[in-house]
Amino acid sequence: QVQLVESGGGRVQAGGSLRLSCAASGRSFSLYAMGWFRQAPGKEREFVAAISAGAGIRYSADSVKGRFTISRDNAKNTVYLQMNSLKPEDTAVYYCAAGRRSGLLVASEYDYWGQGTQVTVSS
Known about the structure:
The chain is mainly β. It has strands at residues 2-7, 10-13, 18-26, 33-39, 46-51, 58-60, 68-73, 78-83, 92-99, 112-113, 117-122.
């Protein structure tokens, strides 16, 4: 059982940066792959980034590649999403997810989800 709580969202001007954190509680955090997804009003939830349990494999969506970086600190049971060069189209609720399956780019493959944190980027 894993419980996830996101933090670090807020309002920022285009070109600015934010760092999201996802604090996990529960057993065997280090065995879970972790992902970040986002959802804007009226749109489907979309993949942003994912990281394997051992942090050796990372994926990111084309829309954020080169701007966003996912990382994890298993000793702190925390996953991060560093977001740089933010654009208005990055505005969304960002969700942290944990899973034990291999399809890390697909939301349905994740077992646990946080409540989300709002990110708003002004033009």
